[in-house]
Amino acid sequence: MAAGMKDVASLAGVAVGTVSNVLNHPDLVRPLTRARVEAAMEELGFIPNGSARQLRAGRSRCLGLVVLDVTNPFFTEVARGVEDYAQAAGYAVILCNSDEAGDKERRYLRVLEEQRVRGILITPVHGRAPELRRIRERGTPVVLLDRPGSAGQCSVAVDDRLGGEIAVTHLLGLGHRRITLINGPTTIRQCADRRRGAYRAIERAGLDPAAVLAEVTVPAMNARAGATAADQLLGREPSATAAFCANDMLALGLLRRLSQAGVTVPGDLAVVGYDDIEFAADAAVPLTSVRQPKYQLGRAAAELLLDEADRPAEHEHRRSVFTPELVVRASSGAPPVRAQDVPGAAQDVPGAAQDVPGAAQDGATSPGQASRSVPA
After folding, report:
1. What CATH class does 160-292+324-362 carry?
2. Rounded to the nearest 10 degrees, how much is the dihedral formed by the CA atoms of 76, 82, 86, 87?
């Protein structure tokens, strides 16, 4: 049977109230008495009841982190940034996986509130979740992670429209005029913004998006969906010479299925992903990808959350936006037909590959990864 406070008090020869003070207000206990109580705790293997303590104090030493897909390495790296900052500040992190499902997200939010977490970091399934507003009104700080927020709320995000634009500008600069966008549901803000960026790149090149860009939409943002998208692309868009995938997991699933089908990358089809997860550089064909500063996103979000939680009167809501960069690897090359044989080839397109804003060779670090921050 687990030892309780009475057992500790008896062994240390003090009152139960003294044990409570050692746990909650150690500055009120004389050093020698405190040492005797702590020695008794160690001998008995006493574990304090954290839930009871936080209910008495009205606050927890835990943060809630709700992500869309815990199997996606993008969120793994974001979570590392959150945890490192939180741990240094004396907090633990409760990680919740919504699986891109609104009902599951709502259940987790309810549990986190019941646990009196100090604050919640979340990549919401939908752009506007009324539950988040109600949680904030009830006194729990909320920071949007990898989502731009509205006025009066903290958020940390990446300029995904720019990310989509530099990815497709890169492909146009290589000479591609038949590009397929492989995207997730546009109800997910990142998917919608990366799509808008792709269209903007084509329009800025003076081309017709309807003639250049085809779309394959899948219900999830994972490798299995990427393989499904490959089947659709090969069946519906056999003339495509390039694919821009809305995240790297889609791109990796696409690469695997293309290899199984005997389609070479980049010889038959150039592929560009998004996120630059750790596996991107280690793929069978190293993946060109739009890099997001994942770890920095997590740290910045945790910093904003704890500032709001610990200094509510002085805190100012901020919206931090990081700049993505293109990392060029082997998966993107010129289309099968030589560029000089195609009207409006690479040299005639504004923003050719060497001119893509934020482009970097593999392993390069871009100064553009610093965020810009504005009052929310």
Report:
1. alpha beta
2. 30
Residue 357 tokens read as 């804003």
| CA-wise closest residue to 308 among 300, 320, 316 | 316
Task: Tell me the whole-structure pTM to 2 decimals.
Answer: 0.76
Q: How far apart are CA 124 and CA 226, in angstroms?
A: 22
Residues of the chain with pLDDT below 70 are 1-2, 49-59, 127-129, 337-376
Domain coordinates in residue numbering, the chain = 5-48, 58-158+295-322, 160-292+324-362
**Start-to-end C-alpha separation, the chain:** 52
- Looking up tokens 């920095």 gives 296
Which amino acid is it at 242?
A
CATH of 58-158+295-322, one of 3.40.50.2300, 3.40.390.10, 3.40.50.1220, 3.30.420.40: 3.40.50.2300
Residue 360 in contact with residue 291, Cβ under 8 Å? yes
- Tens digit of pLDDT for each residue in 97-145? 999 898 999 999 999 988 889 999 999 988 666 789 889 988 899 999 9
Do 160-292+324-362 and 58-158+295-322 fall under one CATH topology?
yes
Give the helix ranges, DSSP H, for the chain: 5-12, 16-24, 31-44, 50-57, 73-88, 102-114, 130-137, 160-173, 189-204, 209-212, 223-236, 248-260, 294-310
Chain-centre distance for alpha carbon 54? 29
Compute the radius of gyration of the chain from its Cα atoms.
26
